[in-house]
Amino acid sequence: MIVCVCNAIREEQLRTYARQGARSVGGAYGRHGCKVKCGSCLPFAREIIEEEQAEQAALPTPAAA
Ligand code: FES
């Protein structure tokens, strides 16, 4: 599903950027090589990034060796 029509960014791409460390919409779009344009995608893009951050936070941390 396309999240950002202006930049042709798909939901899965945003989730990947968030899992790779993007902490904001601007950061994720930067990884895609673009910037926010019209802004109509921002609410959904933020939601996706926040979901991924929550999932990452819920993952168990490796035990200290
Ligand atoms: S739809 Fe994302 S900037 Fe326009």
TrEMBL record:
<dbReference type="InterPro" id="IPR007419">
    <property type="entry name" value="BFD-like_2Fe2S-bd_dom"/>
</dbReference>
<keyword id="KW-0408">Iron</keyword>
<keyword id="KW-0813">Transport</keyword>
<protein>
    <recommendedName>
        <fullName>Bacterioferritin-associated ferredoxin</fullName>
    </recommendedName>
</protein>
<keyword id="KW-0479">Metal-binding</keyword>
<feature type="domain" description="BFD-like [2Fe-2S]-binding">
    <location>
        <begin position="2"/>
        <end position="51"/>
    </location>
</feature>
<dbReference type="Pfam" id="PF04324">
    <property type="entry name" value="Fer2_BFD"/>
</dbReference>
<keyword id="KW-0249">Electron transport</keyword>
<dbReference type="GO" id="GO:0046872">
    <property type="term" value="F:metal ion binding"/>
</dbReference>
<dbReference type="InterPro" id="IPR041854">
    <property type="entry name" value="BFD-like_2Fe2S-bd_dom_sf"/>
</dbReference>
<dbReference type="GO" id="GO:0051537">
    <property type="term" value="F:2 iron, 2 sulfur cluster binding"/>
</dbReference>
<keyword id="KW-0001">2Fe-2S</keyword>
<comment type="similarity">
    <text>Belongs to the Bfd family.</text>
</comment>
<dbReference type="InterPro" id="IPR052371">
    <property type="entry name" value="BFD-associated_ferredoxin"/>
</dbReference>
<keyword id="KW-0411">Iron-sulfur</keyword>
